[in-house]
Amino acid sequence: MKYATHRLVTILALTASVGAGLSACAPIMIGGAVVGSLMATDRRTSGTQIDDEGIELRAGSHIRENLGDRVRVNVTSYNRQVLLTGEVPSAQDKQLVEQVVSRVENVRSIVNELAILGNATLTQRSSDALVTGRVKAGMVDAKDLFANAFKVVTERGTTYLMGRVTQREADRATDIARGTPGVQKVVRVLEIISEDELQGMLPKPATSEVKK
C-alpha cells in the first residue's frame, strides 16, 4: 500500500507540475507525449511520437491565434488522432476549433469532445488532474497491463482513454478507470489491434550464441 501510494503521489506531482507550467502562460492545455526513456516502450514509432508532439504544439498555437483566450481547449494527439476536450462558449466556436485543428499538418482524424460551457474552475481542473493520476496509478499497479500503452485525459469527471491496445487491454483499462474514485464516465478513443500485432511490437528476447 505504501509503495502504491508513493507511485500515485509521484504521478500527481508530475501532472501538477506540467499543469502549473501551462496555466501560467495560456488557457490552451497541451497533452504532450512522453519522450526519452518511455519512447522505447511506446507502441507508436518514434516518428509518430514526434508528429504527435508537433500536432499538439501547432494546434494549440493556431487555436490561440484564431480564438484567443475565450476558449479552454486541451489538445491530445495519439498516433495522429486528435482528441479535443475543454470548454467553448458556443457551437460556432466548437466547430471553428475543429476546423482550425483539421488544417494542422499530419492530423489523421479528430474526436471533438468540447463542451459548450463556461471554463472549468481551478477546483474542477485540479479534481480532474487527481482523477487522471489515480487512473494512471491503477494501470501501473495492474500486473496484466502496459500502462505506457495508454494516454489518460479527464475533463469534468469524464475520463478518456487513448492508445493502441488489444481488446483485452481495452476492457481491462476500462474496468480500472470505471472503478477509480471520481470517474463519472469512461470514453474510449482507442485503436484496437490484434494479439498477433501486439506480439510483433514487443521486443524480442536476447539470444546468446554458444561458441564451440
List keywords for this structure.
single chain; 212 residues; alpha/beta; five-stranded mixed sheet; three-stranded mixed sheet; 6 helices; globular
Order of helices and strands: HEHEEHEEHEEHEH
Give the helix/strand class: alpha/beta
Question: Termini separation (Å)?
Answer: 50 Å
Number of helices: 6
Helical proportion, percent range: 40-55%
Q: Beta fraction of the residues?
A: 15-25%
Give the integer mean of the pLDDT values: 85
Instruction: Work out the oligomeric state of the chains in this entry.
Output: single chain
Shape: globular
* Strand segment tally: 8
Main sheet attributes: strand count, strand direction, barrel closure: 5 strands, mixed
Gyration radius over CA: 18 Å
Low-confidence stretches: 1-6, 9-26, 32-40
Could you explain the architecture of this structure?
- The structure is a single chain.
- This protein has 212 residues and is α/β, with parallel strands linked by helices.
- 45% of the residues lie in helices and 21% in strands.
- The chain contains 6 helices and 8 strands; from the N terminus they run H-E-H-E-E-H-E-E-H-E-E-H-E-H.
- The protein has helices at residues 2-23, 46-67, 91-102, 122-141, 167-178, 195-201; strands spanning 29-30, 72-78, 81-88, 109-112, 115-116, 150-155, 158-165, 185-192.
- The strands form 2 sheets. Strands 1, 2, 3, 4 and 5 form a 5-stranded mixed sheet that branches.
- A hairpin with a 2-residue loop joins strand 2 (72-78) and strand 3.
- Helix 1 runs antiparallel to helix 4.
- Mean pLDDT is 85; it is low at 1-6, 9-26 and 32-40.
